[in-house]
Design a protein that fits this description.
By secondary structure, this protein is α+β, with helices and mostly antiparallel strands. β4 and β5 (69-80) form a beta hairpin. The strands form three sheets. It has a six-stranded mixed β-barrel. The chain has a four-stranded mixed sheet with strand order 10-7-9-12, with no helix packed on it. Strands 8-13-11 form a three-stranded antiparallel sheet, with no helix packed on it. The chain has helices spanning 15-23, 45-52, 180-205, and strands at 4-9, 26-33, 36-44, 60-64, 69-80, 83-91, 98-107, 118-121, 125-130, 139-142, 151-153, 164-165, 172-177.
């Protein structure tokens, strides 16, 4: 069953009015899409968080007082001092594929970290395309098989049925690297080796 969120039309966009709105526990919002002009709204921030908690990519019903219902996803959040200050809703069609960035949920402990390696997350979201009903709240990625020096790219990720990759298959998602101290020592040893080789070469010339 689709979740719902109730919104109220917003006519006064003055800065002072927006401040009062936020003080009352509501935040300004806007809904837009190919089938509707941009409509200024306000929503209860606590009710918004209940919907947002299930995942920004999942479709839900936005009920606007005095207007038709909208099938929407949360397109964007704006934050101020760590708190949500504005939200954009995008009206969508249930039978039209969407391109969105979905959060990545990393599962497991990389094998390489047990040997002292450092796991690095180069990306925390993945751009994909799917019908609204097939868009997952998050894409789960098992990283337990990654050993020291291994890399995980977008093309390695198994996507849910009905979801296709938009990002480049070569996009780096995560990697396990040697600790900085080890890398530095290896680089210094390599530099010393090159210097010794150069010195030996000069001695032979003489």
């Amino acid at each position: 069953m689709s979740q719902t969120l109730t919104a109220e039309p917003r006519k006064d966009t003055k800065h002072s009015s927006l401040r009062k709105l936020r003080e009352s526990g509501r935040i300004p919002a806007v809904v837009y899409g190919s089938q509707t002009e941009s409509i200024p709204l306000s929503v209860d921030v606590k009710e918004l968080m209940k919907v947002a908690r299930t995942g920004r990519t999942e479709m839900f019903t936005l009920k606007v007082e005095g207007s038709s219902d909208f099938n929407v996803i949360i397109k964007d959040f704006q934050k101020k001092s760590g708190a949500v200050s504005h939200v954009d809703f995008l009206q969508i069609s249930a039978n039209k594929r969407l391109k969105v960035r979905v959060p990545i949920e990393f599962l497991g402990t990389a094998e390489g970290t047990k040997a002292g390696g450092v796991l690095q997350h180069q990306e925390t979201e993945l751009e994909v395309e799917a019908l609204p009903a097939n868009l997952p709240a998050a894409i789960q990625v098992d990283i337990s098989h990654l050993n020291m020096g291994d890399k995980l790219v977008a093309g390695d990720i198994k996507l849910p049925e009905g979801v296709t990759l938009v990002a480049s298959p070569e996009e780096l998602i995560a990697s396990v690297t040697a600790p900085r101290a080890v890398l530095q020592a290896e680089n210094e040893a390599e530099a010393e080796g090159e210097a010794a080789a150069d010195a030996a070469g000069e001695a032979v010339k003489e």
